[in-house]
Amino acid sequence: MPAVLSLAVFPGWLQPLLVVGLIATLELTIYIAIEPWFYGRSAGVSEVALLIGLAFWTILWGPLGLLLGTPMTVCFVVFGKYIPVLAPLAMLLSDEPALSPPLVFYQRLIARDGHEAERVAGAYLQATSLEATFDDLLLTALARMNQDVTAGILTEEDRRAVLEAIDAIARVLVIAATGREPPAPPTEFVAANGVAPACPILIGVPAQDEADEFALRLLALLLDPQRYAMVSCPAGCSPRRS
């Protein structure tokens, strides 16, 4: 109708062609850019997957595929979430990450990509809290590492590399969350100060092995050094009353 009206109002073909071009540009922009972004946010579909789906159905069915591409792609994602056979489609087309943050964090650690692991931990810290980050990421990675070492999947060198990376990331997280330097290692706290601190002293005893000892070190990083001091016994020790 705007094109027909422009033919009646304006002389020549320039204005009608401009009207048709404007309408075509707006339609393509809305359908290719705005609608994928809107549907992607509301239906959990990746914008890239939506654009690839539009191109696929357009090549397959022509203009009809261009019209039906968006709803069909969204339907495939919904089917994949509830039908086990189509689960790979949901993984490919959905905007949800394929792995949870704890798994991504551990995967980066065993790949010895400390920078990416620190980035994952920093993003998780911004979304949750320091305690939740230690519980969900660091301790989970520590438990998985211990299981993989016991199963023979990781070597002793891998174990030490993971422990060093977790320790470094934990100290970075403490600085980022609290703005204070982490306390000295627990076993050296009293010796470093010369005298016992005035605040209460917590004694940590590992239950089994070095993994439990390392978990106590993580706990010491979470404690406020102005309120508590923590001394951790080495793995295998049995504290006795002096």
Uncertain runs are 186-193
Order of helices and strands: HHHHHHHHHHEHE
Q: Roughly what fraction of the amino acids lie in strands?
A: under 5%
**Quick one: biggest sheet?**
2 strands, parallel
Q: What's the number of extended β-strand segments?
A: 2
Number of H- or I-type helical stretches: 11
- The total domain count is 3
Outline the structure in words.
This protein is mainly α and 242 residues long. It is built from eleven helices and two strands. The protein folds into three domains: 92 residues, no CATH class; 85 residues, Methionine synthase domain (Methyltransferase, Methionine Synthase (B12-binding Domains), Chain A, domain 1, Orthogonal Bundle), CATH 1.10.1240.10; 60 residues, no CATH class. Helices cover 69% and strands 3% of the residues. Helix 1 packs antiparallel against helix 2 and helix 8 runs antiparallel to helix 11. The longest helix is centred in the first third of the chain and has 30 residues. It is elongated. About 3% of the residues have low confidence.
